[in-house]
Amino acid sequence: MKLNHINLPVKDVTAAREFFETYFNFRSEDIKLNDTLSVLKGEDGFTLVLMSEKLNQNGNHAYPDAFHIGFFQSTEAEVTAIFERLKVGGIYLEKEPQLIRKTFGFYFRFQDILIEIATGG
After folding, report:
1. Which ranges of the sequence are coiled-coil (predicted)?
2. Is residue 38 part of a domain?
3. Domain holding 86: CATH number?
């Protein structure tokens, strides 16, 4: 069974959409009125839905501490290239790519989402 999509509540839908389009090659499929929701497609057909956290019915606006999303790369060079592209784009990166368990990668936060870039998969 294949995971087809994920819905991520975000603080700023416009900024999140631009981030995923710029750094991870997603493309917009559908943008809702007032930018409360954007549907993005990845190069592999994966659907990423960005929803304004204002739409959370129960008012929960935080991810659990260990929650994160990951983008696996084939080589250390690809990991390093993404790190450099993010850095040049002004994205705050706390640590350089390094060995993490049996992979090479790094973590960083965008809005409140913890993102992992690493070799593996």
Report:
1. none
2. yes
3. 3.10.180.10
